[in-house]
Amino acid sequence: MIDLEVLRRVSQTLAERKAADPDQSYVSSLYQKGTEAILKKVAEESAEVIMAAKDGDRLHLVWEVTDLWFHTMVLLAHFGLSVEDIAAEFRRREGVSGIDEKRARLATAAEAESVVIAKGGKA
Ligand SMILES: N=c1c2ncn([C@@H]3O[C@H](COP(=O)(O)OP(=O)(O)OP(=O)(O)O)[C@@H](O)[C@H]3O)c2ncn1[C@@H]1O[C@H](COP(=O)(O)O)[C@@H](O)[C@H]1O
């Protein structure tokens, strides 16, 4: 089994950095700069993931995906969330095929639309 305990430990550190000095902590400095600055890092790291993958550079891909995961974890922590919330969502989706999920979603949307049409276009 893959040991993902490190993600929980890093999450814990990210939560603790809320009270840290921005001059001593990169994470704290990002919190202080705010959502826009964190999103900018997420966008930058996403672009770097794409470039590494396009180059077929497996080592850089690992580094860049790690940077991306890290900065999305900072983003989650900024909103009071953590990898525990993401794990819970993965557990909720576990075993549900993406194809079946999309089919069910489209059927629900079509059903809602037919109800609106039956009511004469009023929701
Ligand atoms: N996993 C990481 C981690 N990954 C990447 N980084 C930092 O993310 C920053 C941004 O990466 P870039 O490649 O964009 O580098 P850069 O050009 O220097 O960054 P900018 O000046 O553009 O912000 C770098 O300074 C990296 O060191 C990380 N910084 C911290 N962590 C974890 O977060 C914990 C808390 O960190 P501090 O808050 O700094 O103590 C650490 O103990 C680690 O566990």
SSE order and pairing:
Blueprint: H1 5-16, H2 26-33, H3 35-55, H4 58-78, H5 83-93, H6 98-118
Helix pairs in contact: 3-4
The helix tally amounts to 6
Succession of helices and strands:
HHHHHH
Q: Judging from the principal axes of the Cα atoms, what is the shape?
A: extended
- Poorly predicted runs are none
Averaged pLDDT: 93
- Ions and ligands: phosphoribosyl ATP
What is the CATH homologous superfamily assignment of the domain at 5-81? Answer: MazG-like
Quick one: CATH class of the domain at 5-81? Mainly Alpha
- The helicity comes to over 70%
Q: How is the main sheet built?
A: none
Derived from helix and strand composition plus strand pairing, the structural class reads mainly alpha
The CATH architecture assignment of the domain at 5-81 turns out to be Orthogonal Bundle
Radius of gyration: 20 Å
β content, as a range? under 5%
Distance between the ends? 49 Å
Count of extended strands: 0
> Which fold name fills CATH's third level, the topology of the domain at 5-81?
Helix Hairpins
Summarize the structure.
Pathway: Amino-acid biosynthesis; L-histidine biosynthesis; L-histidine from 5-phospho-alpha-D-ribose 1-diphosphate: step 2/9. This protein is mainly α and 123 residues long.
Outline the structure in words.
This protein is 76% helix and 0% strand. The radius of gyration is 20 Å and the shape is extended. The protein is mostly helical. It binds phosphoribosyl ATP (PRT). Its EC number is 3.6.1.31. It comes from Tepidiphilus baoligensis. This is Phosphoribosyl-ATP pyrophosphatase. Keywords: Amino-acid biosynthesis, ATP-binding, Cytoplasm, Histidine biosynthesis, Hydrolase, Nucleotide-binding.
